[in-house]
Design brief:
The protein is α/β, with parallel strands linked by helices. It folds into two domains: 186 residues, Rossmann fold; 102 residues. The protein is built from 13 helices and twelve strands. The strands form three sheets. The chain has a seven-stranded parallel sheet with strand order 3-2-1-4-5-6-10, sandwiched between helices. A three-stranded mixed sheet has the order 7-9-11. It has a two-stranded parallel ribbon with strand order 8-12. Helix 5 links the parallel strand 5 and strand 6. The termini are far apart.
Length: 324
């Protein structure tokens, strides 16, 4: 593995960015966090002496170039609202133009399973066809195509790291977050159904150390890789384990595809979830053997331990109420 120059986390304020930043800090690496809001970045990274805070406008290649100046590696974590996935390809186009102009050597996109569409059989390897049948899958695929097409252009090396659904302490955008809050507060948890289908989740704090090793591995670039979770588990099993830690039984409100359609009449986010509900009935499970063969053993937190940490985090941060 090679030594690293300075790393930039574009779209750093989310949970994935925080996981990678933590791993870089442990490794003693200086890094730059880039986002639209200085206040949000300062709140999250202001106490880390390794972190440099920079704001940008991702719609402006000149702003991207300024944010990337002096960086060797850019890790792209930029999210868009769920109903604005059409932004993904053009934002990536502008980012690639900006980082290339800045002389960045490496770019890593943290991706999803969306570009695969329906799995032909689980677990799937990297050679599974990319045949998205959803709009969001097609937009993510177009984003990936731009990243991989840029590999070898003006000295830039690129790769894509695909993740399944994720969870972690305080990770509010996880499918499982409401379960932990419900367990900690004795409130009824709202979950997306069906909840008895085995599903794969990555414990997000496990991401950072893998990315830190991957970015220093020259052989990794020019293709995509999988990082899987610690096996599969059902949402009902997660709920049982989390509520058992609180000494009570789960109280769940399950929203299936039909309910999502109804809720979508009033809530744009619920309307957007309908399209991707196939992942709840036909999950995509990843095989990350190739990544392990490349960089060595992948540290994975067990579901039992991850659930315990998430429950404890929810109990510390969310005010509880008495059980009726």
């Amino acid at each position: 593995m090679q030594a690293m120059g300075k790393v930039g986390l574009f779209g750093a304020a989310g949970a994935a960015g925080q996981s990678i930043a933590a791993a870089l800090g442990v490794a003693g690496c200086d890094y730059r966090v880039v986002g639209r809001s200085r206040e949000a970045l300062q709140r999250t990274f202001g106490d880390d002496p390794h972190a440099e805070i920079v704001t940008w406008n991702p719609d402006d290649p000149a702003s991207v170039c300024a944010a990337a100046a002096g960086l060797q590696t850019v890790i792209y974590l930029v999210g868009v609202p769920y109903h604005q996935f059409a932004q993904h390809p053009p934002l990536m186009e502008k980012t690639l133009a900006g980082v290339t102009a800045a002389g960045v050597e490496r770019l890593i996109l943290i991706g999803t399973v969306y570009p695969y569409g329906r799995a032909r059989g689980n677990p799937i390897r990297e050679d599974h066809p990319r045949e998205p049948h959803t709009f969001k899958g097609r937009m993510r695929l177009e984003q990936e195509k731009r990243v991989l097409a840029a590999h070898g252009h003006k000295g830039l090396q690129t790769l894509v790291l695909r993740l399944p659904d994720f969870y972690g302490p305080g990770v509010e955008r996880s499918l499982l977050h409401g379960v932990f809050v419900g367990a900690a507060t004795a409130r009824r948890a709202q979950v997306l159904g069906p909840i008895d289908v085995p599903h794969e989740f990555i414990y997000l704090p496990d991401l950072g150390p893998v990315v830190e090793r991957l970015m220093r591995t020259p052989e990794a670039y020019g293709r995509w890789w999988h990082l899987a979770g610690a096996g599969t588990i059902t949402q009902r099993e997660v709920a049982r384990e989390a509520h058992a830690l609180a000494g009570r039984k789960p109280k769940l409100m399950v929203a299936g595809k039909g309910m999502l359609r109804v809720l979508g009449l009033f809530n744009p986010l619920m309307r957007e979830l309908v399209e991707m509900n196939y992942l709840m009935t036909e999950p995509v499970v990843l095989d990350d053997t190739a990544l392990a063969n490349l960089i060595g053993p992948l540290g994975k937190t067990s579901y039992q331990e991850g659930i315990r940490r998430c429950f404890e985090a929810a109990r510390e941060t969310v005010p509880a109420r008495g059980v009726n």
